[in-house]
Design goal:
- Helix content is 44%, strand content 11%.
- It is an alpha/beta fold and 260 residues long.
- It folds into 2 domains: 4-202, Rossmann fold (3-Layer(aba) Sandwich), CATH 3.40.50; 208-260, no CATH class.
- Strands 1-2-3 form a 3-stranded parallel beta sheet, covered by helices on one side.
- It is globular, with a radius of gyration of 19 Å.
Amino acid sequence: MTDSRQITKLLWTGGWDSTFRLLQLLLSEKKIVQPYYLKFPSEKTDIAELPVRKSTEKELRVMQAIRNRLIENYSHTKELLLPLKIFDASVVVPDKKIVKSFSKIVQSKYIGKQYVWLASFAKQYHLKNLEMGIEAEGNTKQVIEPFIKRKGKTYLVNDRYSSRPEHILFNYFSFPILEYSKRDMAEISEKENWTELMKMTWFCHRPYFGKFPCGSCNPCVNAYEDGMGWRIPLFFRIFGRIFKTLYHAKVVIKLRNSLS
């Protein structure tokens, strides 16, 4: 029987950051990993505040493909990588204190609404030290950085700030790759021969035909800004940016409002 104290709990989405951490754990540290995935709906539901992710099925396929390739190339990972635990976000009850804390934070800084559901999920299922792939150059690091402490090789929100909204929202998680940018991860992956696996990762929230990055959603825009635009096919790089510019043009906003 596996000792649960020796298992690293990881939020895995099949994305660049969380997959990089997965590879560190499995291939460098030889740790047993229990991956968790919070499944957001791909279409709008009766729960108005629940984020929609048209990429959900794509992410699940990518994670399975990465698992298969890992086992094929590194046979020891078959024992180390435990079956993915999938939880439906629609059964998560948003915690009132967490919702209030998120609302306070976004009055001055931007972070995604998914953190309400992730924190509420962790609280509802009594999860602590759940590893989250927050990287060095993202908005979320700027939010938590004044309130974190280093513990071993990872970072946690310091309990001395227990009354702060940042602690209430993020105290369920640890942040082991907080010092790495996406470029850092790319360089390490090349050195460690992980590039093939990292290229299998996914990031776009609104893929065309369930296959191609849209080039216009926030993760796609972040890919451009992080120097990772090569991950988006040229056509969608051009089309996505044009679409986003037109969609947010004042005349188009006025037209959309008149039709709604």
